[in-house]
Amino acid sequence: MSFWRVLLCIIFPPLAVVDKGCGSVLIVLLLTIAGWIPGVLAALIINNK
Hints:
Layout: H1 3-11, H2 13-16, H3 22-34, H4 36-48
Helix pairs in contact: 1-4, 3-4
C-alpha cells in the first residue's frame, strides 16, 4: 500500500476504497459516520487485502 493511499484512508476513508466495490464503500461510509476511527480502520483493512 502506498503512502498516498494510507493518507487518503486517514483523511477520507470512503474515497480510499472506491475501487474495491460498492459494498466496501457503503460499509466504510457507515462506519465513518458512526465514528471516524472505525471508518479509518476498516479502510486500512480493506486496502491491505
